DNA sequence: GCCAACGTTGGC
DNA sequence: GCCAACGTTGGC
């Protein structure tokens, strides 16, 4: 019974916001990837890593967020299509994400695979999120919040999707 | 285990 | 390119 319960709760769909600089990796890049799927590598923050390792599940839905660009905001939806697995870029000396403290034997950083789901018909800008009362609790508008992977609740997720024209 | 120095993030 | 906020590192 306990097993069933924990199994069920682990299956309940969760929602996330994931940030990427479009000059590095945009939602277009994701859409044009093989199988419209890509590994979310380069996460080098423990809290963000722990979300991937401990809290993400297959089929969780993701708000794809463009940061540090002309039009900052949520541009579409993706979904989680793998469990967390070691981020090999951490032990690739040629990678900008190289981390000598991570190794194949003892990986420190992990990634998940993300699959493109849809583009919004328009960007839901950061300013718009700030201006929307029901989205005022989103981490992305909290002062000093820089996490590149953030949990989002179901109503926030659906509100952002509606604003994005879905 | 404290905390100063340093590096990074990311909006502006 | 500025800089505030935050995370990490490393000496002590």
Task: Give me a quick take on this structure.
The protein is an alpha+beta fold and 166 residues long. Helices cover 25% and strands 27% of the residues.
Rg over CA atoms, rounded to whole Å, is 16 Å
Cα separation of the termini: 38 Å
In terms of per-residue confidence, which ranges show pLDDT below 50 for 5 or more consecutive residues?
none
Q: Helicity level, as a percent range?
A: 10-25%
Tell me the strand order in the biggest sheet: 2-7-4-3-1-8
Explain the overall architecture:
It is a single chain. Helices cover 25% and strands 27% of the residues. It is α+β, with helices and mostly antiparallel strands and 166 residues long. The strands form two sheets. A six-stranded mixed beta sheet has the order 2-7-4-3-1-8. β3 and β4 (73-80) form a beta hairpin. The chain binds a DNA duplex (12 and 12 nucleotides) through residues 19, 21, 44-47, 67-68, 72, 126, 143-146, 148.
Key features of this structure:
5 helices; alpha+beta; DNA-binding; 8 strands; two-stranded antiparallel ribbon; 166 residues
SSE layout:
Layout: H1 2-11, E1 15-20, H2 27-31, E2 37-39, H3 46-55, E3 61-66, E4 73-80, E5 85-86, E6 110-111, E7 113-125, H4 126-131, E8 149-152, H5 154-163
The chain binds a DNA duplex (12 and 12 nucleotides) through residues 19, 21, 44-47, 67-68, 72, 126, 143-146, 148.
